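Form 7-S
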Amino acid sequence: MSETASSAPAAAPSTADAPWPVGELSQKIKGYIDRLGSVWVEGEITQWGVSGGNVYGKLKDLAVDATVSFTVWSSVRAKLPDGLGQGDRVVALVKANWWVKGGSLTMQVFEMRRVGLGDLLERLERLRQQLRAEGLFDAARKKPLPFLPHCIGLVTGADSDAEKDVLRNAQLRWPSVRFRVHHSAVQGERAVGELVAGIRALDADPEVDVIIVARGGGDFQNLLPFSDEAVVRATAACETPLVSAIGHENDRPLLDDVADLRASTPTDAAKRVVPDVADELARVQQVRSRMLSRVTSLIGTEIDRIAQVRSRPSLAAPGWIIDQRADELVRLVARGVELTERRLERAGQEVEERRRQLRALSPQHTLDRGYAIVQRGEGQVLRDPAEASAGDALVLTLAAGRLAATAGAALPAVGDPAR
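Output:
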């Protein structure tokens, strides 16, 4: 306590009849706290936020469940080691400050040193590496969300802002969407068991098309249930597509990496899961307009093509085709007649020539010239008088018929000198 405060007379005891003013109580608390002075403490940073150049955070005990808030003014922050932040294990020189006007206690940091990775952060990192090695973070195993879910499962805190944001924004986008809400603790000791139960119950519901796990942000320590191995494995085993909507950009729990889709906030989850009815109707109208334009253009093109075909001479005055083909047919018929007559004439001449040749070679023609064929009675043709004896019966074949004769004595040959 300051020198002025220590020299002031002690206040009278507080009674129901003579209570202390709030200001006096606050001043006494400040006096007691000021006596502590500056101390070195060790702990793990569970929250680290920068605003206006100053740092506002929380420091957690390494062994027991105890946390204090601290403030690092910008003048001190410039002297701190680079990279300090959430999850670091540190020792810090702090002085407890009691704000009389607001009635709040904070630790002002004058010096801070990193001494290692925090136990919580180290355990989370080991679990993260294990889950990654098992393939639970692989994009190939993530399931696509349904285009238009009829029923959405929601795991969130009872009467929370996250629940209101999801319901309100989803119903604004698609009024007919239905919800199955499973209320669960989202921080504290009960959170892990209730989150796992909610995920499994909604996954077993055949009417639920997609599940949203939502929480409206929080510091690193409050978000630890969403990095618990039981919650993460229940999410990985979920057959229904699951969306993580924890709503904290700086601290990504392991649930974000295992979920089929990560939404930055519960509001963003509603927008990612439920399509906007106005946008979909506008898109349908655009598609209908494009289809109508395409069909109209196609019909117009075909009409022009038909008009071009009809304007061709063959369709504009089809009689000319018949006239032209008739002329060609007449010419072809005349040509055919001419060629046929020539062929017949040449064939007749050839036949007549063959006839003359046959007549010249015919035995009848020889007989007509006065010759005769001499045969013995048995039909043997005689070529030499020596082949017949006097008195043999002979048959003479003449041009006009046959005669019976009897062979006489042989006569000299025509032109023979002995004749």
